[in-house]
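User: I'm putting together notes for a lab meeting next week and I want to include a structural view of one of the chains we've been expressing. I don't have a solved structure, so I'd like a prediction I can at least talk through. The sequence is below, exactly as it appears in our construct file.
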Amino acid sequence: MADEDQNEKTETPDDAAEQAAAATDAAPEEQAPEQPAAEEPAAEEPAAETEPQVEEPAAEEPAAEEPAAEEAAAEEEPAGEAAAEAEAPAEPQEQLSPKERRRRSRSRHSEARPQRSPEERHAERLAERREKAARRRARRLSERAKAKERRAAAPAAEPLAPVHPAGEGTRRVRQGIVVSDKAEKTITVRIDVARRHRRYEKIVRSSSTVHAHDENNEAHEGDVVRVIESRPLSRTKRWALVDVVERAR
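Assistant: Thanks for the context. Below is the predicted structure for the 249-residue chain, given as structure tokens.
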């Protein structure tokens, strides 16, 4: 077996030489119709295509730089927006009432308070009320003191001129006949009036009854008396007796 293997190994170079000679004889016949030389550049195209693939990581480096540029642009945009907001006029803040401000401050209060008994809460409320009362009292006293100082420093006000001239108006005086003296210190006087009508020029007679004050009960029924207008002395008395002009017969 070893001899056969050696023979095969020795015969192999001869066989290879014969095959090479046969290939050289057949090559001119096959090259004429096929002309593979013209198609060789097409076979090299995949090699040309594969070469850039090896260098792809180098081509991707700018792509890696693009996110960095985008991040820088994104950082610049908020800065520009902040500058624009700073340049823009500040919007007026919402005007809140004191009660609303206190309510919002209480809603933001998150401090946990210890549990207290009703007596402790009541005592705390009383102490808070006393403190507020003391502050109110001090504020009122200071306001009164300041007002007093302002009044003392202010010049004296000039007296205003009276709207109506000083003096007593003219009171009306009427003459009539006593028709009743039954009430105490009061007489009923009938005042007769005769006047001419403005259109018909006829004498028109009329009468009115008044109650007059008679302090000494001097007048009696049928007397002619003179009465004067006075302040209200009772529900119906607005007149007072002046004198008795004529006694009744």
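A couple of points you could mention at the meeting. The longest helix spans residues 118-153. The two ends are 202 Å apart (CA to CA).

User: Perfect, that's what I needed.
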